[in-house]
Automatic annotation (TrEMBL):
Residue ranges of the region described as Disordered: 1-29
UniProt keyword Transcription regulation, yes or no: no
Keyword Signal: yes
InterPro entries: DUF4292, LolA/LolB/LppX
Source species of the chain: Hymenobacter busanensis
Keywords carried by this UniProt record: Signal
SUPFAM superfamilies linked to this entry: Prokaryotic lipoproteins and lipoprotein localization factors (SSF89392)
Compositionally skewed regions (Low complexity) per UniProt: 1-16
Organism superkingdom: Bacteria
Name this protein carries in UniProt: DUF4292 domain-containing protein
């Protein structure tokens, strides 16, 4: 009998070496686990968690949206269901990478977000006016609670109404009437300012489009600031409403590099169909309380 190819011809034949398992999947999982906090920051607050002190003016999470003041020439999107897909470029905490984003909404009722890296879904969130639910598919954990989760996680108190406005590029009204609202026209732009406690809010409205083109929020005590710039306005298919397909978020804290998130939307549809918001937690997942 001829010796096996791996045999020297003497002694018992050695078994063939077991093929080495590919490490591609483990590398993907390790990479996503390392970037999970930033990916969750994108889902939770569009990367606004770079500021250590809260700068967004807030009221109760269940407060209904306030109407736009008549002197403000902004036109917010009118719809029941919205769906959009896009890509986010993230530069924060010394890392740069991109993530795919899938967004669904039922206006004033549900925000559903899914974010993935390297083709693998890592985070899914479903947010209502009084609840926040987040699944981390990599760690096999989930959170279910209220908006205090986002406050603890990112030090940025945020309500459902504010989060919805940021994602849509809508005008963000003051949470109360005692804010000293100031409105002025400067050529093709209307400038709207108001102040709540130590927080200054400025919104620039493109009068030719009646859409917000820039939002700036600054805490005068700490000089922390967040700037959101909206661009690439296009009328939606089967709908004359203008939607900003480009969103740039910059969160700045003195003495620290800015955290930057750039989102390019595509395939944006309003009321094309009634949407589902799939969200189920596998029995094996453990509930996680983040502090």
């Amino acid at each position: 009998m001829r010796p096996a190819p791996w045999s020297s011809g003497s002694g018992p034949a050695r078994p063939a070496a077991r093929p080495r398992r590919s490490t591609a999947k483990s590398k993907t999982v390790n990479s996503m686990n390392r970037r999970w906090p930033l990916l969750l920051a994108l889902v939770g607050s569009l990367g606004l968690g770079a500021c250590h002190r809260s700068i967004f003016p807030t009221k109760t999470a269940t407060a209904p949206p306030k109407p736009v003041a008549p002197e403000v020439k902004a036109r917010n999107l009118d719809f029941t269901y919205l769906s959009a897909k896009g890509k986010a470029q993230i530069d924060a905490n010394g890392e740069k990478y991109s993530a795919n984003v899938n967004l669904r909404m039922r206006k004033d009722s549900v925000i559903w977000l899914s974010a993935s890296l390297l083709g693998v879904e890592g985070v899914r969130a479903m947010i209502t006016p009084d609840s926040v639910q987040v699944i981390n598919k990599l760690e096999k954990t989930y959170y279910a609670g209220n908006f205090s989760y986002l406050t603890r996680q990112f030090n940025v108190p945020v309500t459902f109404t504010q989060m919805q406005a940021l994602l849509l590029g809508d005008y963000l009204p003051a949470a109360s009437d005692n804010t000293g609202l100031r409105v002025s026209n400067e050529g093709p732009v209307q400038k709207v300012n108001y102040q709540q406690a130590s927080v200054l809010v400025e919104q620039l409205i493109d009068l030719s489009r009646s859409r917000v083109q820039k939002l700036t929020v600054q805490d005068v005590q700490t000089n922390n600031s967040v700037t959101v710039t909206y661009a690439d306005f296009k009328p939606l298919e089967k709908n004359a409403q203008l939607f900003a397909h480009g969103t740039l978020v910059e969160a700045q804290q003195p003495g620290r590099p800015a955290a930057v998130v750039s989102i390019s939307y595509r395939n944006v549809d309003l009321d094309k169909e009634r949407l589902d918001f799939p969200f189920s937690v596998p029995a094996a997942y453990g509930r996680k309380n983040r502090k």
